[in-house]
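Same chain as my last thread, 45 residues:
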Amino acid sequence: MDGARESAPAWRGGFGRLWGAAVVSSFGDAVRVAALPLLATTLTR
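reply #2:
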């Protein structure tokens, strides 16, 4: 039974990478949405 069990299913690695990329992308979008108005305010003062 030791050889029959894998450490993780094959789909888990790909799903984890996809989920992580979505989290990073959403965080980047949030930073951009918050930073652009602040940058515009700073540049137009």
